[in-house]
Amino acid sequence: MDNTHDVLIVGGGLVGASLAIALDGAGLRVALVEAAPPRADLQPSYDERNLALARASVNALTALGVWALVGARATPIRKIHVSRQGEFGAVRMNAAAHGVDAFGAVLPARELGNGLLARLDACRALTRHAPAKLDSISIADDAVTATLAASHGQIQLRTRLLVGADGTTSFVRSALGIDVENMDYAQAAFVCTITPERAPDCAYERFTATGPVAVLPLADRRAGVVLTVPAADAGHVAALDDAGFVELVQARFGWRLGRLNRPGRRVSYPLQRVRATRLVAPRGVIVGNAAQTLHPIGAQGFNLGLRDALTLAELLIDGARAGGDPGDAAMLADYAARRCEDRDGTIAMSDALARLTANESPPLKLLRSLGLLALDRVPTLQAALARRGMGFRAGAPRLALGEGP
Length: 405
Ligand SMILES: Cc1cc2nc3c(=O)[nH]c(=O)nc-3n(C[C@H](O)[C@H](O)[C@H](O)COP(=O)(O)OP(=O)(O)OC[C@H]3O[C@@H](n4cnc5c(N)ncnc54)[C@H](O)[C@@H]3O)c2cc1C
Description:
Elements: E1 4-10, H1 14-23, E2 30-33, E3 50-54, H2 55-63, H3 67-70, E4 75-77, E5 79-84, E6 90-94, E7 104-108, H4 109-121, E8 126-129, E9 132-139, E10 144-150, E11 153-164, H5 171-175, E12 180-196, E13 203-207, E14 213-217, E15 223-230, H6 231-239, H7 242-253, E16 260-261, E17 267-276, E18 280-281, E19 284-286, E20 292-293, H8 301-321, H9 329-356, H10 362-377, H11 379-389
Parallel strand pairs: 1-2, 1-11, 2-8, 5-13, 11-19
Antiparallel strand pairs: 3-7, 4-7, 5-6, 9-10, 10-11, 12-15, 12-16, 12-17, 13-14, 14-15, 17-20, 18-19
Helix pairs in contact: 1-4, 1-8, 8-9, 10-11
The protein binds flavin-adenine dinucleotide.
């Protein structure tokens, strides 16, 4: 096996796998390293969470040949309803009013993972190491040498560019000497699937004094719930039996969909914001959760990470066509500059939602209600929100706009 690569991607989660697929056939020697075995049920990234995918992400997954494998399991988001328990004002958005059939779609992460794995199998020019874990790196002027721990022993690879797509606790990030700013939201999110009395035709986001709850439409009349609770209550909520958990969700979400029934497996996640202080280093770059981990309230983590991956793929493909070095410092600086506005804006939006909803002071409550009312009634405000929500941001990568690489 040739152990010399142009691009070595560490982490075959949702973002790293998408990047590897985007680079396939571009004439670059690409390798993908993933610590988990290549099966959706063993891959931590491909779990129970239900992903709200922005329209730009659906476009991109279509262009990557992944949507053809998973689209049948996805549920379109045609309407969005945002409200706050105990306050007036709600935002109702209808895709048709914005000239599109859907704002995006909901897809279980495991289904997307299965599609990504099947699409990776069809990548002819990709070298895959899984299960194999990046153990150490050494950086020289012209290349990075990476040492992997695999089941049959150590493997050494040389690459001109090292990409860290290895998640929130990224080894690549620290090996490249990139610092992070951490913020613990002191909240936990519980994810599960339920069957409401009335099939949901809308994606709901409801803010409450103890944290937001999202209810997303799924196939087969089911709905995906993301219930956020203060960290201090997480132990108690985890210990509830199914009936107790449903009662809690019902009390927080209300009766818009009638009685909620049949909760599926419950999984919880501690919520923190992790923000890398920079995205690039000599011969290295980080993408996805390695670069920023967000509060799930805005449903933006993967959508943003996918735009990271697609922007990087676009620059690498353009560079390869021009015969450039994939680890070129100017190209990496260009990448960091192109991601700046989208990244800062999306982090700020998720953060503001997570913090604002926790604030109970009366003037803020009023402002919130008026804000929701304005968003509901003022078409230009709503159009701007819808466009951002669909993932069409400044400098959006070509694949996200439905164009070729
Ligand atoms: C409850 C919840 C709901 C969410 N809902 C949404 C949503 O609706 N919409 C949305 O866009 N986003 C959502 N997100 C965010 C989204 O799930 C993440 O942003 C996304 O999964 C990040 O993918 P990633 O590939 O960057 O990282 P990860 O998923 O963490 O993948 C990293 C991969 O790297 C591998 N790895 C780690 N270290 C090494 C190593 N040393 N060597 C080799 N491999 C390694 C791991 O095994 C893993 O497979 C949600 C998150 C949560 C918690």
